[in-house]
Specification:
By secondary structure, the protein is mostly beta strands. The protein is about 5% helix and about 45% strand. A hairpin with a 4-residue loop joins β19 and β20.
Amino acid sequence: MKSKSFLLSAIGSAAIATAFAVPIEIGSRRELFVEDTIVDRLSGSAEFRLNEPVPREVVLKHDEPWEGAGSGYHSVFQDGPLYRMYYKAWQRTVGPGTPNTDDNPLLCCYAESDDGIHWRKPVIGLFDFQGSKANNIVMASGQIGALHVDAGHPAVFKDLNPSAPADARYKAFFRSDAHWGKESVERPRGLLAFKSADGIRFTPLVPDRPVITNGAFDSQNLAFWDTVRGEYRAYWRYFQRNDDGSKGGATPTGSRAIRTATSKDFIHWQNEENLRYVDSPEEQLYVNQIKPYPRAPHLFIGFPMRYIDRGWSEEMRALPELAHREWRAGIVQRLGTALTDSLFMASRDGVTFKRWNEVFLRPGPERAGAWTYGQTLIGWEPVVTKSSIEGAPDELSFYVSESYWSGRAGSTVRRYTLRLDGFVALRAPMAGGELLTKPVRFAGSMLSLNFATSALGSVRVEIQDEQGRPLPGFSLEECAPLFGDTVDRTVRWKGGSLAALAGRPVRLRFALNDAQVYSFQFQP
């Protein structure tokens, strides 16, 4: 698939820049080129290129009587040999007039898989639907004690906190329903904390109140345990204040934004602030889909869905399913003229993100169920699955909503794939290009690369001192050219082991010819 590129500007002399540089401690972490912290400069024809995932098969259809066209907000994770998926089930009737949702309250349903490709909906037997418990519902909207639960905005995760008690190995955010029942009585707005021992039966962690209340929350709002920093982190939907001073927060009069906070116990949250972005325009972001990347957990990655209302035009009318688009616009115009796609962003502190302004997941070919409001929502989070090519390395699988509220029997989930670490590539053509890192300190005795070349292409790496001078035995000329296509190959120099260089400030110089490098890692 076609990719977009982003080229970093060269930033002055390396010798001057390093005079006061503090080496970045990378130890034996895997480093990806998803943001610019460790990058000093590019030269030649080198560039960073954002890669797009490849569409695969439809893996799930929301076609049960309790599901339907409004189903979405998928939470996906691998739990030992099992893959788990939780999602909003909503039979939102579509057609002329106002959508009828009275017969089907918002539900949270569950699916599972042994390989991440073939999914099943187990009969759980917990909640009644139209006189039967033969369904896969794990939470239904309604009153649980003092709480008024909206089960249709779920975010479920396995808690990696080693201190988590046995009855709280799984946790979830559900939204507090602000207007419950026919009375339309105002209820506390916010996020409700739930726990579970088995990932199926959930009970309130706090029985009488939301744990986060400053926000809009009409989206998928999520949290997780950060293994690197030893704390929970939450991200949720927020409307930030407009320039004219109109109020954000619970009232949707500002722009769609993302807010974050941290907690030690999943109950008491602090350090609230809105996300900041480097070199990105203000855009409407509907969800965030943020989580640490498992192969490099010091990096937060996210896949926000971008929202844009392009209004009526001849081009808008040329898009698929005009009659349905006009029907939606008849309810609220933006529902017929707004479009969505998904972006990619990354951060080292969880607050300031490098957001790639080019699209990560586009709406794709014009067809029924595409190019409408609510499409291309990426499930939270990508997981590792086997490649469809026998003998090839594992790959990342993404689960993407299609046909959302499109008039079909139900929305669907399509799997997309991407190379491990393959979000962004350091790339150069045959003419060549180079990257020089800032000073870093590593731990280990060898360097491994995730890379791909043509049959004639190559990758070489030079180890330099802080001032940019090649270290004896580790110059570019003393590096054996790497070629091939692998997620783990050791770089070889005449100098042999890197153990003697571990712990001292060094720079890495990558030289590429018709090649891409996706990540690197120092290893024992």
